[in-house]
Specification:
With 455 residues, this protein is of the alpha/beta class. It folds into three domains: 6-37 and 235-294 and 400-447, 3-Layer(bba) Sandwich (FAD/NAD(P)-binding domain), CATH 3.50.50; 49-82 and 297-396, Polyamine Oxidase, Chain A, domain 2; 103-205. It is 34% helix and 21% strand. The chain has twelve helices and 18 strands. It has helices at 14-25, 67-76, 104-111, 120-138, 149-156, 160-175, 184-201, 214-229, 284-294, 332-336, 361-375, 432-447, and strands at 6-10, 29-33, 62-63, 82-83, 87-91, 97-101, 207-210, 232-234, 239-245, 248-254, 259-261, 264-267, 297-306, 316-319, 328-331, 344-351, 384-396, 417-419. The strands form four sheets. Strands 6-5-14-15-16-13-17 form a seven-stranded mixed sheet, sandwiched between helices. It has a five-stranded parallel sheet with strand order 8-2-1-12-18, covered by helices on one side. A three-stranded antiparallel sheet has the order 3-7-4, with no helix packed on it. Helix 2 crosses helix 12 (432-447). The longest helix has 19 residues, at 120-138. The chain is globular. The structure holds flavin-adenine dinucleotide. Flavin-adenine dinucleotide binds next to helix 1, strand 13, strand 17 and helix 12.
């Protein structure tokens, strides 16, 4: 018996795209509503018109444990565009570098604290603290949710050199918050997920990157799936309220006054956009309050075209040593194998960018160039050919102390309404994998509904 239900997905970010793709693959009739004129949400390519180039709104890295994201990439046929380098580069002012990885010698170095100036005592303390940390990730102390990651590192006895060379940077990357305010529990939960996935796949989780722009990676393949399965995509379609009558979803009320008929809905908008949409849901107050408390953290990304190469040693380099202004430099020549007709493109990321987010673009670029000159001797004479600064004040929900346990699950009290999005409850922090895993959970719930046959 075929399912006559009309499935509507609200939001065309990764969570919404994955939901629509997987529902379509399951043979369902799907409509996708996206308020913008493009799909991709917070992961998309961004045109630099004068150069006819398409860098991204922000460089995104991908962990090898992103199982649900890889499932999505397989569905849309772009799995081949992700690469995992053998090791990453840590760079100190003056240009000193160290290699770090999850296998062999670079892994031992990471365990012992990769800092080139670490003493033998520091290295022994780093190894001990790292093992203690691993144990406590899996067997969490009861007060972990009350601690910042910094307080936890201090309690573990993690030496400053190991924190500087690895842990503070990793914690910032995992939850986009500086360790002085990030929740230790959220960091520990993600580390525990990583350890479990490492055991499951019998290899440690490592960090990779896309070898193409984000539209090609996430959106183009989704369009092909939509065409194949007849998914209707409505652009500039702003949903206002999911209409629930007598305990069942009947439609989605739109900002233009229309109603899109629906028998089941995946609401895949970020916490910043949820208000109003769930008004008909009995538990809406609780979900709105959680969405508010989760708040936001800013990321500033810059696509910097230089007149010469920086002399990077790897595709991704972490700037260590209290840089503050940039935490990572991505060399798009190495990542994408691109030419340098428009200059050498470097994509810079500043997570937890509370200081930079309100600065004008030219100030951000000046500050970043000053910093690059401190870290890359080759940058001394470098000139900026073109710069594109992308401030994202609401880049992700915030994961500071006090936010643990707030994230709502995908199931609601109305079986035909599920919620998805990186901010809903998953095994990950605010990441693409969280968005994809939330979609997998939401779609599973809908696929378990009894088939709605034609009356
Ligand atoms: C600069 C930056 C760097 C990042 N780096 C990484 C990284 O390295 N690795 C990683 O894993 N993650 C990273 N992230 C996080 C990752 O991008 C997000 O977690 C993920 O993309 C969120 O997907 P989502 O579908 O949950 O939400 P979104 O992408 O925000 O999608 C929600 C969609 O809903 C639409 N919408 C909202 N309201 C309505 C409405 N009323 N009606 C219709 N449509 C609506 C929006 O327009 C949007 O398209 C980064 C994020 C940023 C911003």
């Amino acid at each position: 018996m075929s399912d006559q239900r009309r499935y509507v997905v609200i939001g065309g970010g990764l969570a919404g795209l994955a939901s629509a793709v997987w529902l379509a693959e399951a043979g369902k009739q799907v409509t996708l509503l996206e308020r913008r004129g493009r799909l991709g949400g917070r992961t998309h390519a961004l045109e630099v018109a004068p150069l006819r180039d398409v860098p991204d709104n922000g460089q995104h890295v991908i962990a090898s444990g992103y199982d649900h994201l890889f499932r999505y990439l397989t569905s849309v046929g772009t799995r081949q565009y992700v690469k995992f380098p053998h090791q990453g580069v840590l760079r100190w002012p003056g240009g000193r570098t160290a290699m770090m990885g999850t296998k062999g010698l670079p892994a031992v170095r990471a365990l012992l604290g990769a800092h080139p100036d670490a003493s033998a005592g520091d290295r022994a303390r780093a190894a001990l603290a790292t093992m203690r940390m691993g144990w406590q990730c899996l067997n969490q102390p009861t007060d972990l949710a009350e601690l910042t990651t910094e307080q936890w590192f201090q309690r573990l006895g993690m030496p400053d050199t190991a924190r500087e060379a690895l842990w503070d940077w990793l914690a910032l990357g995992i939850a986009a918050e500086p360790v002085r305010q990030e929740s230790a529990k959220i960091f520990a939960d993600v580390m525990a997920t990583g350890i479990r996935l490492g055991v499951k796949h019998r290899r440690p989780v490592s960090i990779g990157y896309p070898t193409t722009d984000l539209d090609t990676l996430f959106v183009s393949g989704a369009h092909r799936v939509f065409e194949r399965h007849g998914v209707a995509v409505h652009y500039r379609a702003v949903a206002r309220r999911i209409v629930i009558e007598d305990g069942v979803v009947t439609g989605v009320a739109m900002a233009d006054g229309g109603v899109v008929p629906a028998d089941a809905v995946v609401c895949a908008v970020p916490n910043s956009s949820i208000a109003g949409l769930l008004d008909d849901l009995p538990e809406h107050d609780e979900i709105y309050a959680a969405a508010d408390k989760l708040g936001y953290t800013p990321i500033v990304s810059t696509n910097l075209y230089l007149d010469r190469p920086l002399g990077t040693k790897g595709a991704m380099e972490a700037l260590i040593g209290g840089a503050g202004v940039i935490d990572e430099v991505f060399d798009r020549q190495r990542m994408h194998g691109r030419g340098t007709l428009n200059g050498w493109l470097y994509c810079l990321t500043t997570s937890g960018a509370y200081d930079q987010i309100h600065k004008p673009g030219h100030e951000v670029v000046d500050e970043q160039m000053d910093l690059l000159r401190r870290y890359y001797p080759e940058a001394a004479e470098a000139k900026v050919v073109h710069a594109q600064v992308v401030p994202m004040p609401r880049a992700t929900f915030s994961q500071v102390v006090g936010t643990d346990g707030l994230r709502p699950g995908q199931r609601t009290s109305v079986p035909t309404l599920v919620i998805a999005g990186d901010w809903t409850r998953t095994d990950w922090s605010a990441t693409m994998e969280s968005a994809a895993q939330s979609a997998a959970k939401a779609v599973d719930l809908l696929l378990k509904l009894p088939v709605l046959a034609k009356v």
